[in-house]
Amino acid sequence: MITGDGADEIFAGYNFLVKKDHSELKDELKRLKEIMHFTSQKIADELGISIQMPFVDENIINAVETLPISLLINQKNDKKFGKWILRKAFENDLPSSVIWRKKQQCKMVRVQQA
Description:
Layout: H1 7-10, H2 22-35, H3 40-47, H4 58-65, E1 74-76, E2 79-81, H5 84-89, H6 96-99
Antiparallel strand pairs: 1-2
C-alpha cells in the first residue's frame, strides 16, 4: 500500500500555504519538513500491513526543494492551487473533479477518557 503522507507538506498542499508570498512559503515549507510526523507506519506495523511513503523519502524531498514555486502553487480559473505539479502530472489520467477539487479539512474526533 502506498500513502500520500508528506505530499501536502512538501508540495504546498495546505490552503494556508497558497496565500503566502514566495519567501514566507519557502520558510514555512522548511518548517513543515522539520516537524512533519505521520502515524501511518506505526499503524501499518500494528495491522501487519506493508506500506510505502514516497513523499517522505529524503530524495523526493530534496528534489522538490529545487522546484520553482510555480510548480508547487499556480492558478487555474483565477483560483490558486497547491500541489500543482502533482495535479498536472495526473490531469490526463484522473477526472477533473478529482484533480481540481478544493482541499478539504480533516475532521478530527475528540476522544475523552473517563
